[in-house]
Write a structure and sequence with these properties.
The complex is a heterodimer of chains A (95) and B (318).
Chain A: H1 2-26, H2 30-53, H3 59-89
Helix pairs in contact in A: 1-2, 2-3
Chain B: H1 2-26, H2 30-50, H3 54-81, H4 93-120, H5 127-133, H6 142-150, H7 152-171, H8 184-207, H9 215-231, H10 242-263, H11 278-302
Helix pairs in contact in B: 1-2, 2-3, 3-9, 6-7, 7-10, 7-11, 8-9, 9-11, 10-11
The chains are: A mainly alpha (95), B mainly alpha (318).
């Protein structure tokens, strides 16, 4: 039962990654692409992490995976904001 | 079933590595090449992890991909803002590429020869010897045992090379000015990440005695903290100035050499630690080596003396 739930979570996580990647490749300008990648990948990562946590038994391992999740969230939020600022300051690089 | 799935992963990783390498070489803009090189480093780290070499994977991810990537990007930015690069005539692309593919072919041949030798079990192996002597080394991680005990001389010389590089950087003159702070989000991110990086560096250093980790990986993590502080607009990247900086810089090879020479006071030879003290001495050496490596990498990133070192200027705030 837990295996099934975790597989479902991981597969739906992969779906969001897939959608985000399509957005990255197909959307017209930097801000749209940034929107697609950061939103979809963060949701995908959350589902992936939740699916993986169900497979773990030791609290320390769970803590490590959750730490990775928080770090990636912080890094992608900070990075996304930096890229958006750069585009705003330098509109020539929008496309 | 599980074997097949992992084999698919391995083949995908190998193909991805080759594709990234070729893409980095063929890319038209330097910026894109560097980004591809960083991704290449991260995938290489995954490949090392799959080859059951987590120590190398850690080093590749932190130094080969992280710090080297930051250095390359900084070098590119300097080139842009300073003197314009005149595109050198250079060699035609086909020459460069044919040499590259020749090298790839040679590497594949070498890998095949290695696998062949491995399968036929020819020649002496040192792995068994290391495992047999591990109990005498003072640490439980065979990689640390080789680096800091059995082949400590090599590591000592590596630290000396780092010190030479650091002295070279200091001779280049003052560092380039710090970038302007990139807004509140990045400042906050730096404020969160820096303590976390310091703690993880300490953890990786400590855990290196019995699990993957060690001075070089910990030093690179600490250096990442310095580089991030620099990107957040800090003038000195958390480096101390003057006397303390010099002490940290020579500390790695200095303490190593001192311990090695002190071991000779008995009838042991250079770097032959007394057995009961080996673990403590290795930790002592690694602590100073970590600080030294971190300071060297951050100074290389700064590209010169931090301006706090200017004679008449007192270090105001960190």
């Amino acid at each position: 039962m837990i295996d099934l739930l975790s597989a479902a979570l991981i597969v739906s996580g992969l779906f969001f990654y897939f959608a985000g990647t399509i957005g990255l490749l197909r959307l017209p300008d930097t801000l749209c692409r940034l929107h697609a990648v950061t939103k979809a990948d963060n949701l995908g990562l959350g589902l992936l992490v939740f699916g993986l946590v169900l497979q773990l038994s030791e609290p320390l391992q769970i803590l490590k995976v959750l730490l990775i999740w928080i770090l990636v969230l912080a890094a992608s939020a900070g990075g996304g904001q930096l890229i958006a600022r750069h585009v705003q300051r330098d509109p020539g690089e929008r496309s | 079933m599980s074997f097949d799935a992992l084999l698919i992963l391995d083949v995908l990783l190998a193909a991805l590595l080759l594709m990234l390498a070729i893409a980095a070489l063929h890319s038209h803009s330097m910026h894109q090449s560097i980004i591809l090189f960083i991704v290449f480093g991260l995938v290489t780290a995954l490949a090392w992890a799959r080859l059951k070499a987590p120590d190398v994977a850690l080093a590749e991810a932190t130094i080969g991909s992280g710090v080297a990537g930051a250095l390359l990007l900084a070098a590119l930015r300097d080139n842009r803002s300073g003197s314009a690069i005149t595109p050198s005539p250079g060699r035609p692309a086909w020459q460069v590429l044919s040499v590259t593919y020749l090298v790839i072919g040679l590497m594949l041949t070498a890998a095949w020869a290695f696998l062949d030798a491995h399968a036929n079990n020819s020649g002496p192996r040192l792995g068994g010897l290391v495992q047999a002597e591990l109990a005498n080394s003072g640490v439980g991680n065979p990689v640390t045992a080789v680096l800091l005990n059995f082949r400590a001389f090599d590591t000592l010389l590596e630290l000396a090379v780092l010190l030479a590089a650091l002295l070279g950087v200091l001779l280049l003159g003052p560092a380039r000015p710090a970038p302007r702070p990139a807004g509140p989000v990045v400042t906050q991110l730096v404020a969160w990440l820096t303590p976390l990086l310091i703690v993880s560096a300490g953890y990786v250093l400590w855990v290196g005695a019995h699990a993957p980790g060690g001075a070089f990986q910990a030093g690179a993590l600490l250096a990442a903290g310095g580089i991030i502080m620099r990107l957040g607009g800090s003038r000195y990247s958390g480096l101390p100035s003057g006397f303390w900086m010099r002490l940290i810089a020579v500390g790695g090879s200095g303490v190593f050499l001192f311990v090695g020479l002190a071991a000779m006071s008995g009838d042991a030879s250079l770097l032959q630690y007394p057995r009961d003290w080996a673990g403590t001495l290795i930790l002592l050496i690694e602590i100073f080596a970590t600080l030294s490596i971190a300071a060297s990498l951050v100074l290389v990133y700064l590209g010169g003396r931090p301006d706090a070192w200017a004679p008449d200027q007192e270090r105001g705030h960190a």
